[in-house]
Amino acid sequence: MTTVRELVFGDHAGEVQAAERFAHDVSIAGAAVSAVSQALDFEVSDVVVWAWKTRSALLEAARETHATPGLVREVTVKTYALPWDYEMHLDVLINGTRSATVKFVLSIALEITALAATVQNGRLTGLAAGRCKTSALLQAEGRMLAQREVSFELPAEVKVGDGIALIPDAVSSPDDQSSPASRS
């Protein structure tokens, strides 16, 4: 599963490059990038599912199938675009002392194409196709630290298990309702 951290930085070398772009003391830059890297350690698929719960053809199918038990909707979406921006203020600790508070802004753009999904009882129960092209831009204090693009197959990234609740009435666990940012 691809994490937002991997999307933004790629690997540890990407984190090092981001720290080098940061116009602060080297120790503060390294600690700040490490802190934001940890905060971004959640799956890109969480952002995708959160978007579907907010506004999509899947959300409408979830409402219909929840209202009519036994109804199954096959949803095909040609293209679905989603911008997602997240701002975080992180305290940088060096030797246990706060050295700085850094404002990070993460912008992710998702473009989902050829999505074939099954919705039943208000839950996403299957994905048969779909590609997601993602791009991410991470800035700190107005300075670009990292920028990347990644594409992946949705059925490989979004594990539906017993189904993912798309509406509150279909929720079976507390994790189904949280946004990706609330878990970071």
Question: Please, could you describe this protein's structure?
Answer:
The chain has 184 residues and is α+β, with helices and mostly antiparallel strands. 30% of the residues lie in helices and 42% in strands. Strands 1, 2, 3, 4 and 5 form a five-stranded antiparallel β-sheet that branches. Helix 2 (12-21) crosses helix 3. The longest helix has 14 residues, at 26-39. The two termini are 16 Å apart. The model is unreliable at 173-179 (pLDDT under 50).
Q: Kindly state the mean pLDDT as a whole number?
A: 89
Q: In percent, how helical is the residue content?
A: 25-40%
Unreliable stretches: 173-179
Major beta sheet summary: 5 strands, antiparallel
What is the element string, with H for helices and E for strands?
HHHHHEEEEHE
- State the separation between the terminal residues, measured CA to CA: 16 Å
For the secondary structure, the number of strands is 5
| Continuous helix count | 6
Q: Return the domain count.
A: 1
> Which class of secondary structure composition applies to the elements?
alpha+beta
Percent of residues in β-strands: 35-45%
